[in-house]
Amino acid sequence: MDYQSLWFVLWAVLWAIYFFMDGFDLGVGILHPFLPRNDFEKRLAMNSIGPVWDGNKVWLVTATGVTFAAFPAAFALIFSALYLPILLILFGLIVRGAALEFRGKSDSPVWRRGWDMAFFLGSLTTAFLFGVLFGNIFQGLPLNSQGYQGGFFSLFNRYGLLTGVMFVAMLGGHGAIWLAVKTGDELGARARKLAMKIWAVLVVTAALFFVNTAFSTSIFARYLNNYILLLLPAGVLASLLGMGMSIMSKRFSAAFFASGAAVILIVMTGFAGLYPQLVPARPDALYSLTIYNAAASDYTLRILTVIAAIFVPVVAVYQFWVYRIFRGTVTGEDLRDNKEAY
Amino acid sequence: MGISAWHILRKNHLPLFKKSFRIAATFGLASSLLVVLVGDFHGAEVGKAQPAKLAAMESLWETERGVPFYLLLVPDPTNERNAVELLGIPKMVSFLAFKDFNAEVKGLKEFPKEERPPVWETFLSFRLMVALGGLFILLSALAFFLSRKEALERQPLLLKALILALPLPYLAGELGWIVAEVGRQPWIVYGVLKTSEAVSRGVSAFQAAVSLAGFTLLYGILWVINIYLLAKYARKGPEV
User: Fold this and answer.
1) DSSP string, A229-276
2) Does pLDDT of A338 surpass 80?
3) What is the rounded distance in angstroms from the CA atom of residue A200 to the CA atom of residue A217?
4) Which of the residues B204, B211, B219, B226 would you substitute to probe the A interface, choosing the one with the greatest number of A C-beta atoms within 10 Å?
5) Between these two residues, B77 and A311, which has the higher pLDDT value?
């Protein structure tokens, strides 16, 4: 395998890991107005992701950094062409981060309701727009020799919107299961019930996504050249089934990993169908960015490989450690005893 | 120091805040002195790497040896000279930049007009930053010596000055950024790529304006909230 292909795989895997890791805390934000009913429950929900949500963002930095370092031409194109939606994602991430940190700093109900809304809207915007963004990349962007020919609103086409909605359901479901595992009492019970409903929505939107992928993208065309890739959509099916069965049999830790597998595999299904393109061009594939015409030099890629081989495991280990320290459920006593709690 | 001063003026938890004041004054004095060293390293580096920036910081037009540092200086960029040059410390600029009293310092006229940074902005920001740095040494030295004498609460003037000085280090930091970023114009990669050549072709002026307005608004709101929270927690003092 050449370095370009290796970095394509890493690029896809890092984005998938990001959605797996940050996915559930974005999901907790999306469910914030619906699931926790009072101030205490809202605090429980926020504190369940408290020690880990900002660490999860490291994977966004890594995935974006890899896009920049390994495929600078793709980075330049995506971040110029999709400037406004990426800006909105950034605002969403800023606002929800501020909401988590600031909400508990005053007792005023207006203050808290305001930050609750900011947490919800920031999370929803981020999840939805990431879906729209990657939907459009999977589908291909209108590119010619002059660059990007679409606008902001043309991104909200049928396939883009559908991917956005699926992302909201996917991350919302991931968040519901997280709350089912990490909180008890009434909030946990409600999360367990809601998980089943979101699962049904996710199955429907994922089915629509796959049907549309077959018709409006050339993603599956690539699968016909390499049958082993069919394991990815098969894995999506298996993990969605496993997720549903685990929720039904109330094994929520299993459901969490099944839901995470579904997130990773759905994202990977899209990415795998791009190879060797990074951003397909419509209507003329001539203007596509591929792993060869958008990659940094072999020398850069070699250095990156060494850096990634050292630091990605380091990050993975320290994050695993954090999750281990904060294992178990979040309870009222945790909030009372801890002055740093949100 | 400012927050401790506020509490000492109000006689809140005097022993605690006098102690925190002393610690803050010690660190304040040490760091405001060390900043001089850092600034000196930085200035020497600028002299070597970005000579046009150094010339704009000092508003120096002609290339000269043994350049003096004028305490009072008014640039006149339209006529490529300085309107006022008074109270010069002989050979100081040469010494500060190159550790040699007779070193040659390049003036702005050495560079084509379109490759000179805006003089007023760079010069004024630099002067103000350095003046603030001097003020920090003065204030923290005063605070340091007076806090040894246990008579802090009888120094309302110093305490009030320290409260007023709270935002100044932030201001000095921002001014430093202005020197660094305005002073390197028109280059974004020094001597290689001009800022005007580095603009994204795919991003329209409208989109750039929207993002600038959005960032200004969002950060403005977060800034106000942040100040409110900082003030709230600073006022609250220790929990009993």
Assistant:
1) GGHHHHHHHHHHHHHHHHHHTT-HHHHHHHHHHHHHHHHHHHHHTTTT
2) no
3) 25
4) B211
5) A311
Q: How far is B20 from chain A (nearest CA, A)?
A: 22
Rounded CA-CA distance A104/A43 in Å is 8
Tell how far CA B9 is from the center of its chain. Answer: 29
Which chain B residues contact residue A81 at CB under 8 A? 202
ipTM given for this complex: 0.79
Interface test with A, best of B225, B232, B236 (most A CBs within 10 A): B225
Q: How far apart are CA A316 and CA A21, in angstroms?
A: 11
Closest-CA residue of chain B to A339: B239
User: B218 and A95: CB-CB below 8 Å?
Assistant: yes
Cβ-Cβ contacts under 8 Å for A202 (sequence gap 6 or more): A166, A169, A170, A173, A240, A262
* Inter-chain touch B218–A94, beta carbons under 8 Å: yes
Based on its alpha-carbon atoms, the radius of gyration of chain B, rounded to whole angstroms, reads 22
Give how far B200 is from chain A: nearest CA, Å.
7
pTM of the complete model: 0.86
Backbone φ, ψ for residue B217 (5° rounding): -65, -50
Cα(A225)–Cα(B202) distance, integer angstroms: 34
Q: β-pairing, B104-105 with B64-65?
A: antiparallel
**CB distance A205 to A166 below 8 Å:** yes
What average pLDDT does the structure give for chain A?
91
Nearest alpha-carbon partner for A16 in A269, A324, A280: A269
Question: At A112, phi and psi to the nearest 5?
Answer: -65, -40
Question: Which among B202, B211, B214 has CB closest to A81?
Answer: B202
The pLDDT value given to residue A284: 85
Residues of B within 8 A of A102 (CB-CB) are 225, 229
